[in-house]
Specification:
Elements (H helix, E strand, L loop, with lengths): L2 E4 L5 H5 L9 H14 L1 H12 L10 H10 L2 H19 L6 E4 L5 E8 L2 E5 L8 H14 L3 E5 L10 H10 L3 E3 L3 H10 L9 E3 L4 H10 L4 E2 L7 E6 L5 H12 L6 E6 L2 H15 L5 H11 L1 E4 L3 H11 L3 E5 L4 H4 L7 E4 L6 H5 L25 E8 L2 H17 L3 H15 L1
Length: 427
C-alpha cells in the first residue's frame, strides 16, 4: 500500500529518496563491450541467441520484413501512429536553430554554424513491452535536425522478428536502418561498429540497467543523450481533484517497472486518503498489476503539505520526469515549476498524452536530473561550430591587445602569432 507522509514531520531523506537498481552490472557490461569490439557480428549473433532466444540468419531488418510489418499492422493503428508523428513533427520543427554571423566593433566577422550529427543510433527497448512511441520520439527530432543516417537497434522476439508495430513506427518516422540487437551488445555495436552495424556518433534512447551502463562506458567514444533511470511521475493535486483520476495517473507510471516512482503531493489529507483507496481498487484490475503493485509498495508515496506553495517547493526539490499540475488554473503556477522534465497542465491532461500523442518529447530527464538537463530535442542531434574572420585592417586594431593578453598568461608565442602579421605588413 502506498505510504502517506506529512511534510515536515519526517526526515527529508524519506520524502526525497528514490529507489535505484542495486545490482552492479558494470563488469558484465564491460565484458560484453570488449567481446563485441573484438568479435563483431559473431558476438552479436551469440548474444542474440543467449539473451533473446533467437537464432538469426541476418542482423538487419530487410525491406520485405518492413513490408510484412506494415501489412500486419492494423490500419487504425497506422492512422494513429501517423497522427502522433504529425504532432511530434509540428512541435519539434519549432526547435530548429539557425546559423548566424555578426560584424563586431573591430570589423571582424564572427559566427556560429548549426551542423547535423551525421550518424546517430537509436536504442528502442524490447522485453516486457514494445514501445513504438519511443521510435517516433527519438527518430523524428533526428530527421528534423538533418542527420544523414539514422540507425535503430531493438531486440527481436524468439521468432527472430521485430514486433510489427515497432517497424511500422520506424517506417513512418523515416528510420534508415534497423538491426535486431538488444542490450549492452547493441550499444557496443553502435559505438564501435561491426561488419554489419555502422558506427554512429551519438546514441540516444532508454533501456534497462545493462543498456544504461553500456551508454556510460562508451561515452567519450560516442556522445549519448542521458542515463535514464526508472520512470517517474509526480502529481500535484488540490483538494478538488478527482481521486480516481489521480490514482489512475499514478498507476500509469507504476506499471512501467518495479522500480518506477509514483508520487502525489497535495495540500489535502482527505484527497490523499481517497487516492490511496482508489489505488488499491484499481491496481488489482491492471494487466501489469504485479509490476504496478511492487512499484507502489516500494517506491510510491503521497506527501501532504500545508498549502500549494509548499507543494510546489517539494515538487521542485524532487525534480520529476513527469509532473502533473491538477489544479483549476495551471498556468497561474507554471512559472513556479522550475524543475520538471515535462509538465501536464490541468485536470484533463494525463501523462499518457505526452507519452504518445501530444507532440512534446517523452524521452525526459529522470532521477532528479531535471534540475540541470532537458527533454530530448532537435538540439540533441546537432552540433555547433564557430568561425572567425579578420581582415588585415581588423587585425591591426587588436593585435597589441591579443599580445598583451597572451603574455599575461605566459604564452608569448600566442601573442607573436598576432603581432608578427602586423609587423610584416608595416615593413
Amino acid at each position: 500500500m502506498i505510504k502517506i507522509y506529512k511534510y515536515g514531520e519526517i526526515e527529508r531523506e524519506e520524502i526525497f529518496s528514490r529507489m535505484a537498481p542495486k545490482t552492479d552490472v558494470s563488469g558484465i557490461v564491460e565484458g560484453i563491450i570488449a567481446d563485441v569490439r573484438e568479435n563483431g557480428d559473431a558476438a552479436l549473433y551469440k548474444y542474440c541467441e543467449k539473451f533473446d532466444g533467437a537464432k538469426l540468419s541476418s542482423l538487419e531488418v530487410t525491406e520485405s520484413e518492413f513490408e510484412e510489418a506494415m501489412a500486419a499492422t492494423e490500419k487504425e493503428f497506422l492512422r494513429i501512429l501517423s497522427a502522433a508523428a504529425e504532432n511530434i513533427r509540428a512541435f519539434h520543427e519549432k526547435q530548429k536553430r539557425e546559423d548566424y554571423s555578426i560584424t563586431n566593433k573591430d570589423g571582424a566577422t564572427v559566427g556560429q554554424r548549426i551542423i547535423p550529427i551525421e550518424k546517430v543510433g537509436l536504442y528502442v527497448p524490447g522485453g516486457t513491452a514494445a514501445y513504438p512511441s519511443t521510435v517516433l520520439m527519438d527518430s523524428i527530432p533526428a530527421k528534423i535536425a538533418g542527420c544523414e543516417e539514422i540507425v535503430m537497434t531493438t531486440p527481436p522476439g524468439k521468432d527472430g522478428k521485430v514486433p510489427a508495430a515497432i517497424l511500422a513506427a520506424a517506417k513512418i518516422a523515416g528510420v534508415d536502418r534497423v538491426f535486431k540487437i538488444g542490450g549492452a551488445q547493441a550499444v557496443a555495436a553502435l559505438a564501435y561498429g561491426t561488419e554489419s552495424v555502422p558506427r554512429v556518433y551519438k546514441i540516444v534512447g532508454p533501456g534497462n540497467a545493462f543498456v544504461a551502463e553500456a551508454k556510460k562506458q562508451v561515452f567519450g567514444q560516442v556522445s549519448i543523450d542521458m542515463i535514464a533511470g526508472p520512470s517517474e511521475i509526480l502529481v500535484i493535486a488540490d483538494g478538488k481533484s478527482n481521486a480516481a483520476n489521480v490514482a489512475a495517473d499514478l498507476l500509469s507510471q507504476a506499471e512501467h517497472d518495479k522500480l518506477a516512482s509514483a508520487a502525489l503531493v497535495t495540500d489535502s489529507l482527505e484527497l490523499a486518503e481517497k487516492v490511496r483507496e482508489e489505488i488499491e481498487k484499481q491496481v488489482a484490475e491492471l494487466e501489469r498489476s504485479e509490476i504496478a503493485r511492487a512499484s507502489i509498495d516500494n517506491n510510491g508515496k503521497i506527501i501532504v503539505c500545508d498549502n500549494l506553495d509548499v507543494v510546489i517547493e517539494v515538487a521542485n526539490e524532487i525534480a520529476p520526469e513527469h509532473l502533473e499540475l491538477c489544479v483549476d488554473d495551471p498556468f497561474k503556477y507554471l512559472d513556479k515549476i522550475k524543475n520538471a522534465g515535462s509538465v501536464f497542465m490541468g485536470r484533463n491532461c494525463p501523462e499518457a498524452l505526452g507519452d504518445y500523442y501530444a507532440g512534446p518529447n517523452h524521452t525526459l530527464p529522470t532521477s532528479g536530473t531535471a534540475k540541470f538537463s532537458s527533454p530530448l530535442s532537435v538540439d540533441d542531434f546537432v552540433k555547433k561550430s564557430q568561425f572567425i574572420y579578420y581582415s588585415q585592417e581588423s587585425l591591426e586594431k587588436v593585435a597589441k591587445d591579443v599580445n598583451y593578453f597572451a603574455c599575461k598568461e605566459g604564452l608569448t608565442a600566442h601573442g607573436k602569432s598576432a603581432t608578427i602579421r602586423v609587423e610584416e605588413e608595416k615593413k
